């Protein structure tokens, strides 16, 4: 069966998937960076309370943000596929 979508539609869909990928990489990088900071503070014998406190707040916030971004993008792509 031939793909009936036009070239601009495929381009927009590819851009939306790229935006989702960039969001995953960006937020994954932030979480990795925060984890690295905690490990470094632990290794250097620094007081880990501030880094752990920040990570307890920051990591769930960024995971929630990632969930919202992916929910919106998948919702947009799902609605466009039904048309």
Architecture overview:
Helices cover 88% and strands 0% of the residues. The longest helix is centred in the first third of the chain and has 38 residues, at 7-44. The mean pLDDT is 83. It has 83 residues and is mostly helical. The chain has two helices and no strands.
End-to-end span in angstroms? 17 Å
Helix content: over 70%
How many strands in all? 0
Shape: elongated
Strand composition percent = under 5%
- Tell me the structural class: mainly alpha
Low-confidence stretches: none
The tally of helices reads 2
Compute the CA-based radius of gyration: 19 Å
**SSE series:** HH
Q: Which key phrases capture this entry?
A:
single chain; 83 residues; mainly alpha; 2 helices
Per-chain topology:
Layout lengths: L6 H38 L3 H35 L1
Helix pairs in contact: 1-2
In short:
The chain is an all-alpha fold. Helices cover 88% and strands 0% of the residues. The chain has helices spanning 7-44, 48-82.
């Amino acid at each position: 069966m031939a793909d009936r979508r036009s070239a601009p539609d495929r381009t927009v869909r590819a851009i939306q998937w790229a935006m989702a990928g960039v969001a995953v990489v960006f937020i994954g990088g932030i979480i990795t960076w925060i984890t690295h900071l905690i490990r470094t503070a632990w290794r250097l014998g620094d007081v880990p309370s501030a880094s752990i406190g920040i990570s307890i707040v920051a990591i769930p916030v960024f995971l929630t943000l990632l969930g919202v971004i992916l929910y919106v993008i998948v919702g947009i792509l799902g609605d466009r596929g039904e048309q």
